[in-house]
Design goal:
The chain has 6 helices and 6 strands; from the N terminus they run E-H-E-H-H-E-H-E-H-H-E-E. By secondary structure, the protein is of the alpha/beta class.
């Protein structure tokens, strides 16, 4: 039986400096609209773009930190209601690596150290119970390449 086409909603979860935006550019730039609060500046604008993607059945990636389940819920519920399949990517990069990557950023892209440290304290790893159809982990190897693996965390 032929599987029916379904639009995809991708939700990134990870600290600032964990490689989320670079990963988006390498993996999703040509196929998925990027929804990013840093770029859009306000929740209102973010909501408008999210709604447009839902209405058009356009694949999209939420490229924010999405640290807590409550932060992710708004995207997951909206996408599920819109008939999207929902995929999560958890960027398992340690704080030290995030801080080092952040140091290489310039200008407003650089996050204050206390911002990353505070985010690390609030980070709740994602779970399938939240509504993800699939979950993956993303790590960065010594050569700076992304390593993607199936999620083996709590259901």
């Amino acid at each position: 039986m032929k599987q029916e086409w379904q639009p995809e909603a991708v939700v990134f979860v990870g600290l600032q400096g964990s490689g989320k935006s670079t990963f988006y550019m390498q993996r999703f730039f040509r196929t998925h609209v990027r929804i990013n609060l840093d770029m859009l500046k306000t929740r209102h604008r973010e909501t408008l773009l999210l709604r447009a993607c839902i209405e058009m059945k356009q694949h999209f990636v939420v490229d924010n930190t999405n640290l807590r389940a409550i932060d992710r819920a708004r995207y997951i519920e909206t996408a599920r209601t819109g008939g999207f399949r929902i995929t999560g990517y958890f960027f398992q990069v340690d704080v030290r690596s995030s801080l080092a990557r952040n140091e290489r950023r310039e200008g407003p892209e650089r996050v204050p150290v206390k911002g990353i440290l505070g985010a690390a304290k609030r980070l709740e790893p994602p779970t399938l119970v939240e509504g993800f159809g699939m979950l993956h982990t993303v790590a960065i190897d010594a050569q700076g390449r992304f390593i993607i693996a199936p999620w083996n965390g709590p259901a």
